Amino acid sequence: MKATHQMTLRLPADLAQLLAARTPARKRNQFVVELVRRELLRESRELEAAAIRLSQLEAGATEEETAWLTMDDAQAWGEFDEQKFLQELHEPTPPRGGLPPKKLP
User: Fold this and answer.
1) Given its phi and psi angles, is residue 60 left (phi above 0), alpha (psi -120 to 50 degrees) or beta?
2) Is the pTM of this model over 0.70?
3) 18 lies in which domain range?
């Protein structure tokens, strides 16, 4: 048997009522365990995908494009263009010389 750690969770009343109404009493703990496990795994996959994407961008970047990495705060102040950043963030960018993006299940 795997080691366990008992925790107390506080749920909003409406959520607790839904959980009680839709999950049999003896199955609630396992339901919560599976839900937490699934969400943590999803979050880990998202972080891994972001790290891979960043590595691909860095691998294909020129020295000019990465010059900002060596700037201190005083040099970089006022250089950030939030609109451009958000636009580029949401544009699909093919890898430049790196590995193809990893497909997540």
Assistant:
1) alpha
2) no
3) 10-65
